[in-house]
Design brief:
The chain has 4 helices and no strands. It has 117 residues and is mostly helical. Helix 1 (2-26) runs antiparallel to helix 4 and helix 3 packs antiparallel against helix 4.
Length: 117
């Protein structure tokens, strides 16, 4: 699903940018390392999707859920930047991954039904 790859690439870019901004603005080396690491794992999962789609997408989903959980407490304390942005973007990515899974399963069932005929 090319649209899902575009969303994941944008999410990778956002992770790197937010990690870099955390490092520049607050001197947080942990933010930089975490942002780049999350982006690398998601990019690796996108490559893995070519040979094993389900495992690759599940890996992306795990990263998004972990980031959602990391930023949720501060997002609910009305910290819009950066926690609110990362929370909302992680939630959108999770929803897109779930929608992509459902669309893939629907297409798979349609193919199987067509083969039986």
């Amino acid at each position: 699903m090319p649209w899902l790859n575009i969303i994941l690439l944008l999410y990778c870019l956002l992770n790197v940018v937010m990690g870099t901004l955390g490092y520049i603005n607050k001197g947080s080396l942990i933010s930089l390392i975490a942002g780049v690491t999350a982006a690398i794992v998601i990019l690796a999962s996108m490559v893995w999707t070519r040979t094993n789609p389900r495992s690759g997408r599940i890996t992306s989903l795990i990263v998004a859920v972990l980031l959602l959980g990391r930023f949720a407490p501060k997002a609910f304390q009305n910290q819009l930047y950066p926690a609110g942005i990362m929370f909302v973007c992680s939630l959108v990515v999770i929803i897109c991954l779930c929608a992509g899974h459902m669309m893939g399963m629907k297409a798979k069932k349609a193919r199987e039904a067509a083969e039986k005929k």
